[in-house]
Amino acid sequence: MDTTRSGRFLLAASARPRAGVLLAGCAILVAVLGVLFAHRSTADAFDHAVDSPVITVFAGHPVLALRLASPGTTAPAVVVSVVIAVACLITRRFRGGVLAVAAVPVAVGLCEALVKPLVHRTYIGQVVYPSGHTAAVVALAATVTVLLLAPPRPAMPSWLRTLILAVAYLTALAVVVGVIAMRFHYFTDTVAGAAVGVGTVCGLALILDLIPAVRPSWIPRRSAAT
After folding, report:
1. Pick from 226, 223, 196, 213: which is nearest to 72 by CA?
2. Torsion angle of the four alpha carbons 184, 188, 192, 197, in this order, in degrees rounded to the nearest 10
3. Are the CB atoms for 226 and 124 separated by under 8 Å?
4. Are strands 126-127 and 122-123 parallel, antiparallel or unpaired?
5. What does the pLDDT look like over 121-164, one tens digit per residue?
6. 116/12 Cα distance (integer angstroms)
7. Contact predicate 198/30, CB 8 Å
8. CB-based contact 137:108 (threshold 8 Å)
9. pTM of the full predicted structure?
10. What is the pLDDT of residues 38-78, one digit of tens each?
11. Is the separation of the CB atoms in 25 and 198 below 8 Å?
């Protein structure tokens, strides 16, 4: 097994079957919900029950709702992706760097270019299924989760890892609340968006782990004594 930092796998061998199952489950969820809501322009009873209280609570606070949704927009997502990628390069986790750079554009691309045109569910005249905002922020949270499954080198304190994950998940939750409050999406749009984000990261991690490790020329080789 390649144990150099540059060759570290994103997923342990024991985790890859679970990642494959999770990827398949996310794809099935997106497909099933897509069939149920294809070409619809109104909320079903479930979406109405979830969305209405959120919309009511934020009815007088549109600026707050917009700020909650903003981490799922392009600029913040790209900035966070670059920060994660740079951290991976500094620690010589090159597969992680590629995952960080690719996760958001692939997830959002799947939403915008593939699933939305196929399902064509609308909300106030806009095609909304699945939520690209949610896909982006959940893809970032899933990326961070994958990277923290294997402890960074040097080791990161467990409290810091927990804090990073908590911030990532709470940010994803805030985006879900924000896009519902702003009437950008139905709740089930965000569920499908989350599935796209998680499935994208699982799929990319599995693919990247198939690529043989290549040591860049600028990384010195360790002597046998070390």
Report:
1. 196
2. 60
3. no
4. antiparallel
5. 999 999 999 999 999 999 999 999 999 987 666 677 888 999 99
6. 33
7. no
8. no
9. 0.89
10. 999 999 999 999 999 999 999 999 999 999 999 999 999 99
11. no
